Each structure stands twice: as C-alpha cells, then as structure tokens.
Amino acid sequence: MKDLACLLFLLAATTASFSQANEPLLTTDVIFDRTALKELRFPSEAFRQEKSVRVYVRFTLTSEGEYDDVSIVNSEPVDESFQKELDRFWPKLPKQDPLYAGLYVIPINFLYGERGTGKPKPISNETDTIAEVRSYRILSELPILSYILCEKKGMGE
After folding, report:
1. Other C-beta atoms lying within 10 Å of the C-beta of residue 40
2. What is the pTM of this model?
3. What is the C-alpha to C-alpha distance for residues 120 and 142, in angstroms, rounded to an integer?
4. Burial state string for 100-134 with b = 16 or more CB within 10 A and e = fewer than 16
5. Contact criterion met (CB below 8 Å) for 35 and 144
6. Is the keyword Signal assigned to this protein (predicted)?
7. Which of 31, 38, 100, 150 is the most buried (most CB within 10 A)?
8. Are 128 and 75 a contacting pair, CB within 8 Å?
9. Which pLDDT tens digit goes with each residue over 64-93?
10. Nearest to 58 by CA among 121, 139, 123, 115
11. 43-71 residue pLDDT tens
C-alpha cells in the first residue's frame, strides 16, 4: 500500500512539472520577437548618454490576446525616454494567441555600439533587478543594438 501511495505521489508530481513545461509561452512566438526587433528603437535621448541599458518591461497579455498594463519595472530609475519608446512601440505589436495569456516581464537590452570596435558597451545597470516580486513569466532577453553610423569622406570633397 505504501508503494502504491508513493507511486501515485511521484506520478502526480511528475505530471505537474511536465504540465508547467508544456505550458504555451510567448517566447515560442517568433512574430513577437520579429516585430520587436524590427520596430523597437534605442531612444535618441538615452542614446546620447553613450551607454547600454537593460530595461525590464512588465505587461499583461489578456485572454483576448491584447497587451495591457505595460510599464518599466526596474528597481532603479531609467531614462524616461525608454517609457516613451515603449508607448510608441507597444501598439504596433500584433494581437497574440489567447493561449499565451498571463503576466510577463521581458528584459530588453538597449545596447550602445562602441565606435570602431564592432562590440556593444557593457550594460551600465547590470546589477539592476525587477522592482516588484510577483509570479511573472520571464521572457528571454531581447537585444536592441544601435551604432553611430559615420560616412568617411576624403579630403577635398
């Protein structure tokens, strides 16, 4: 009888862990990432500071597939131009499958490319965390890379 009880407990625990792993997540949706990489821009006000910044963005995906309650939840303040960029960008995201409904946080790395090196500067707020402690689904980091593009001109042009 004890063996049967242990077996049932083990089966229930295994089933619960597999059901969490098979839960549909927004990270499996390529349209979300593709749209974000195409439309999201490093805000010019923050770009002038010449540093890379990680911004934690919280949002709710409703049962209708709509985005709601989008806000920055970094524990330390970030330049307000990042919120303005999110306000501009977020309405451009396509409606999602209601299967993805839930509360999410996505870390967005706005990476400033160092001149002449081809490498981004290290993230200046690397130790910053999410300010609120709630049960979020944390998405993979999204890199937004920006460089200063210069045109080289010859003498006398």
Report:
1. 19
2. 0.76
3. 14
4. bbbebbbbbebbbbeeeeeebeebebeebeeeeee
5. no
6. yes
7. 100
8. yes
9. 999 999 999 999 999 999 999 999 999 999
10. 139
11. 999 999 999 999 999 999 999 999 999 99
pLDDT at 19 over 60: no
Question: Under a CB-based contact definition with an 8 Å cutoff, are residues 60 and 66 in contact?
Answer: no
Which residue matches tokens 């790395």? 109
Beta strands in the chain (DSSP E): 53-61, 67-72, 102-112, 137-138, 142-146
Residues, the chain, total? 157
Locus of tokens 């995906």: 61
Domains along the sequence of the chain with CATH: 29-146 (3.30.2420.10)
